[in-house]
Amino acid sequence: MATPIGQIPLRTCTEHKGRHLELYCEKCDTLVCLKCLLSTHKGHDVCELSDITSTKKQDIQNFIDRTEQIHLVQVRKYITSTDTLLKDNTSDFEKLSHKLQMQTGKLKNDLDLLTAQTLSLYDKMEEDNTKLIQKYKQGLEMYDKQLRQQIRECKAALQHGSHIEIYDTGCEIHSQISLPVKPVLRTASFTPNETFQHHLELAVGKIAMYKILPQTKVLEDWESPVDDIIECICPTTEGQVWTNVHYMNTLTLLDRKGKVIQEVKHKTGIIDLSLSPTTHTMWVCDTKHNIMELVSGQLTNRFSTKERPRCICVTASNHIIVGMTKNISKFTTKGQMVLTTSATGTGKPLVCSPHRISECPVTHNVAVVDGNYNSEDSGGIQHVSVIDTDFKELFVYRGDIPSTYKRSSHEGDRPFNPKDVVYDSVGNIIIGDFKNFRVLLISGRGVFLRIIHTDPLHTWAVGVNREDVLWAGFHRNYVKLLQYSSWYSYHDSTESDQQN
Fold first, then answer.
1. Cβ(23)–Cβ(31) under 8 Å?
2. Which residues contact 284 (CB under 8 A, 6 or more apart)?
3. Fewest CB atoms within 10 A around its CB: which of 44, 93, 317, 437?
4. pLDDT digits over 316-365, tens only?
5. Cis before residue 11, ω within 30 degrees of 0?
6. Which residues 6+ apart lie within 8 Å of 281 measured at CB?
7. For every residue of 437-470, which 3-state class applies, written as one string?
8. Vertex 203, ends 201 and 205: CA angle to 5°?
């Protein structure tokens, strides 16, 4: 424990024992005694200790102010975010447990149903066989009765019959009395499965684990053949990617190595594009207020907006979200408005300058990059807003990164400058931070997770494919494929562990 102020004993010189430290050596930045001036600090500029007290007091006060106003506030934010992280952690695994229990319950119900159906079939088979056996028994009993009657008639004829009666009886014994045919019974069998564990695991389903890699892997790194800034990058389900350069009138489909597969020309500049998660068709908005769908290699107009669109996003429910100045609206594919932020009645726009929009595949929340250009409402501070399906604001992320996080040479030099945003398959948010040369990863609730990548070039565009491989576009036309996370099966990893 530190000694309280006022009870600290006077320090003495380590070189000249017993001598008080009364002077400050400016050259060596250390306290010295009078005798030091004649030895190790001879000729150095010194001053009275009291002369630097005011400077030290100011340093102390600056430390107090900085700590109280910045560091302590930041620490409280981290504590709050940690509480949120704890709640999210509990909630996530509660959801997983619930889904597993639901699946197990369904399997139990299906097994009970299968057992009941099989037992019912057994009962029916048993009943049918019982009827056949009973009929066969009755036939045998009738046959026994008929044979006994014949024997009695034969004995009577031998004892008392006339010649004619003996003749008739002799003829009758040659007439066949049919023996009943033994019935063919329905049979069933049941062989218990002695090695059912693997089949149970398959029935329950694979338990997939998602983890963030400690270090991002660069899978591919190439320069696009289109020599201009790639502003939009949209991976397809076939492992390819659609790109569009700044307000140009051409869509370009590239493969994993950057080779051009297809080009689609348009009569005017294309602003943004989005791939439908249900139909897997491409939708775009252009500078003439048109919202179009790519059909058979041609952009087909579906509807138009009154204001000029800034960005577009096709949702899982097959709605089209269009971002416009101080407004975000949701339309049907035929252009009928379903919802708009201008109808929220708050008076203040939910988003000032929407630049990119992405829908979460898990919660269906929507993340919006707000450029806040010329916005007096928020001082022009750029951020990412996350809203729910009813366009109610959930949280705003302004680029906060924990001070404990290892910083790169570019980091922290400039204000947060989000250029693009996209959700991955588990609901985490990926943000391209343009001026800080990096790609950020935050949770679906706005908690910072890590910096995925820091690059020598500005980050322009980000997109994620179904395997959670990040396609990132950097100034001007450089593209990198980055693997920042991995999926693995619980059963697969268990088997692997056993083999090892």
1. yes
2. 244, 251, 266, 270, 271, 272, 273, 274, 291, 292, 294, 299, 312
3. 93
4. 999 999 999 999 999 999 999 999 986 445 567 888 899 999 999 988 99
5. no
6. 275, 293, 294, 295
7. CEEEEECCCCCEEEEEEECCCCEEEEEECCCCEE
8. 70
